[in-house]
Amino acid sequence: MAIMMCMLVSTQSRFDVLMDKGTGMMDRQESKASTAGSRVGHDGGESGTTEQPGERAVRLDEIKLAIGDAFQIQAQTEQTEARYYVKLIGYLRGKSVLVTMPEADGAICYVREGQAFVVRFFSGKNAYAFTANVLRSSSIPFPHMHLGYPPLVRGLIIRVGERVPVRIICAIILPEGTRTVTAAGLLTNLSVSGAMVSSKTRLGSKGDPLLIKFRVDIREIEFVMSTDATIRSVSQDTSGGFLHGVEFAGMTNDAAIALTAFVYQKLADPSR
Fold this sequence. Notes:
Elements: H1 16-21, H2 27-35, E1 55-58, E2 70-75, E3 83-92, E4 96-100, E5 103-104, E6 107-108, E7 116-123, E8 126-138, E9 144-148, E10 153-156, E11 164-176, E12 179-190, E13 194-199, E14 209-218, E15 221-236, E16 242-249, H3 253-268
Organism: Candidatus Accumulibacter phosphatis
Domain PilZ: 161-265
Keywords: Bacterial flagellum, c-di-GMP, Nucleotide-binding, Transferase
């Protein structure tokens, strides 16, 4: 199997953790699907495959993709774990997926026709993966390549409101007149859309804005999260402290991906 002609300088960004944790478990199923193409039709029909909990098989054109969306591609070889980032140019159902050529350190990484890749991407709150071979690459009018159109794409689905129990210390920044004050709190449950914040003092009333900062560990990598939030509920617990249900808002893509990865990690292995 052909190998990419230049190696990726380690600048892992948006997808690494989520795709390692989330779609890694789908890779073998994708490989199985790609080698069993005769049993899977382009109309999305599937025979003899079993979906795992939290996963579903969908057609690529059912996913809300936009021109310019980022894909992560990884060569299917044992000799390299290099990942490359490309952008979606477009696709034609049943024909090909058109993407930009991968780059590393500012240089184009040329690929060979027939080379196989695992393709991973993120849409909404869900992670997706499929395998594809390079059909054709060209530098005219700009570097691009055609990947084989996948019969089906495996999706890792995380429900927006699905919460996991946690105990994570957090800092809460509150507006107070023309200045801000910082309070300490404890996240007791967490989802991709919000959290329950426990604190000794009342942080505000329903509808009040605040900023929450906390850290999560994903595959032994620490991520610092900082996101705006709105208080949606306030109650008092048995110890006299306060519980605040908050909804996240304005979270960056990087933060959303990391948080989704963390929630999935806890769902898959609550002991972590």
